[in-house]
Specification:
Shape: elongated
Length: 259
């Protein structure tokens, strides 16, 4: 059995209190909430230590404490598990929970598509044939030759390639195609809050390209999650974003309990 130090117990209790109440907490109130009986005087000693470490802070000299942004980033790295595929059968519940926890959420179909063929239509258009969809481009002999060498590439890698070599027309067409695969979108205002003028980029499945892992951080105060989900019985992906002070664990657990 792993022994947990008083320092870690107190810090975890501060985090849990802030996730629950979104308000600073003092030593006496924290002591009354903890399972282990620790005197308020001892908690104040640890408050000082944790403040010196940069793990907690306070808005006012006489006010309670809250976890710092750095603490919350470490907390979510340790707590969130993305190994399981999440079943979501009720879009209304997802909307309710997204609003309750103030989380931006988007779900889109994630079936892999590969480029099967590049057709030249009378030197006027190029038709790119994928596993399930097609994209039409204005004819360009250099683009035709380039794409013909990419037969078998998947749609995501093709989009990234377009960014790298400047094929903006195809990149935009891929983004349009991906937007038709969106099955759920909620709390766009939160995306605006996080990303400002570039928030529209977060409203497309191409937003997934900024995720180099299942958990990413945007600046100091926001995080993003990428999850594999079964949405209404179909394989999909869910991208979420919001403040690091939102309770993502409860959000996900509520969805799991409803499955």
């Amino acid at each position: 059995m792993i022994k947990v130090s008083k320092r870690d117990m107190i810090l975890d209790s501060i985090i849990q209190a802030y996730l629950s109440d979104n308000a600073p907490i003092g030593s006496s109130e924290l002591g009354s909430r903890m399972a282990m009986s620790i005197p308020a005087s001892t908690i104040r000693v640890y408050f000082k230590k944790l403040s010196d470490e940069g793990a907690i802070t306070q808005f006012h000299v006489s006010g309670g404490r809250i976890p710092t942004a750095a603490t919350m980033r470490d907390y979510w790295r340790a707590r969130l598990n993305f190994d399981e595929t999440l079943d979501i059968a009720n879009p209304n519940l997802l909307k309710l929970l997204s609003d309750k926890f103030e989380i931006y959420a988007m779900i889109f179909e994630s079936k892999t598509q590969t480029l099967n063929q590049v057709l030249n239509l009378n030197n006027r258009f190029l038709i790119l044939s994928f596993s399930e969809d097609e994209i039409a481009l204005k004819f360009n002999s250099k683009v035709e030759k380039f794409l013909s060498n990419l037969i078998g590439i998947d749609l995501d890698r093709l989009e990234l390639t377009c960014m790298q070599v400047g094929l903006n027309e195809l990149r935009n067409k891929i983004a349009e195609l991906k937007r038709t695969k969106i099955r759920f979108l909620e709390n766009e205002k939160i995306a605006l809050e996080i990303f400002g003028e570039s928030f529209k980029n977060a409203l497309s499945p191409s937003f997934e390209m900024v995720f180099d892992s299942n958990l990413v951080f945007f600046g100091e105060n926001y995080l993003g999650m990428k999850l594999g989900v079964n949405y209404e019985g179909k394989e999909a992906k869910m991208l979420c974003a919001g403040s690091i002070y939102n309770d993502y664990e409860r959000f996900l657990n509520n969805l799991k309990e409803a499955a």
